[in-house]
Amino acid sequence: MDGRGTPTLRGALAAYLGRARGVRTSEDGVLITSGTTQSMALLGEALRGRGPVVVEAPGFPLHHELLRRAGVETVAVPADRDGLDVDALPDRDVAAVLVTPAHQFPLGGVLSPERRAALLSWATAHDALVLEDDYDGEYRYDRDAPPAIQGSDPERVVHLGTASKTLAGAMRLGWIAAPERLYGPLADAKGWADGGTSVLVQLAMAEMIGSGAYDRHVRRSRDRYRRRRDHLRRALEGELPEAEALGVAAGLHLTLRLPPDVDVALLLRRAWQRGIALHGGVVGETPGVAEGMPDHPLAGPVLLIGFGNLPDPSVERAARELADLVNGARAA
Q1: CA quadruple 53, 58, 61, 66: dihedral, nearest 10
Q2: What is the tens place of the pLDDT at every residue in 107-150?
Q3: pLDDT tens sequence across 275-301
Q4: Residues 189 and 77 in one domain
Q5: What is the DSSP letter of 150?
Q6: Which domain holds residue 254?
Q7: Is 128 exposed, middle or buried (0-12, 13-18, 19+ CB in 10 A)?
Q8: HSE-up of residue 77 (Cα within 13 Å, Cβ side)
Q9: How many domains, the chain?
Q10: pTM higher than the cut 0.70
Q11: Are residues 201 and 227 in the same domain?
Q12: Considering 15, 52, 80, 81, which has the largest number of Cβ atoms within 10 A of its Cβ?
């Protein structure tokens, strides 16, 4: 078995990514993984010894830790309402820059065309790769999602995708569309990691893509999540008018910027005691949430609310529960 993945799925994904996300790749350029978590671990192996990797602050702490566990130094650069602050990139040689340009995690901004062009120019000048995490690129609700950066420079940009948001995380299926220089290192790292992702899962995914079922499923899901997000946002505006919803209409989570007097750590503890799964922190202070950056442009408490598994009839009650938690965690 080819540890890179079955040719059937790699070819199907190359065609799908081309029409859905503007990715320019081929069967040979696609590596199948068990999800973005493994994709980041493999990239850490492939990039070890090539220099540090720039990461967004705030960003996804797990991915940053995976790079560090692979022996790769990370350098944090602020992300604001418009994504990574490209002007703040360091004037030094680095191996790569890890970005979430279509829907910055967790703040929800979209990297503008000007910043995209500037990022590619900076990467070219420093001979660095761009690691594009397109974790929920299929879910933009107010307009078409911007195309992947990879399409502008396939030999400089590594595109990461996953079926976790569109199908199910339990499938453990992801992919990397890589420049040719990484074919060997990534295939070697994948072979040593597990020898290959489940062939049955790969063939099922290839059949879904080839039959058109995957595209139809994504379209239906997009409509459903758009309605749910709109419903949740309206409910939160009524229950928590002081909170600001950050980012564009996209993805499967809503990020709320809370009033500065909210003790978000207390809020999270009480939420978990009630069996409510929430995530958040203080931008500029909390580890993984741009810690050590008190002057971050969005410094202050934020809360992440996932709505992918929130039943539609429960949205109003969820907003009321959240308002109760927020008000109970405000300083006296």
Answers
A1: -10
A2: 999 999 999 999 999 999 999 999 999 999 999 999 888 999 99
A3: 888 899 899 887 777 777 888 888 899
A4: yes
A5: G
A6: 215-328
A7: buried
A8: 20
A9: 2
A10: yes
A11: no
A12: 52
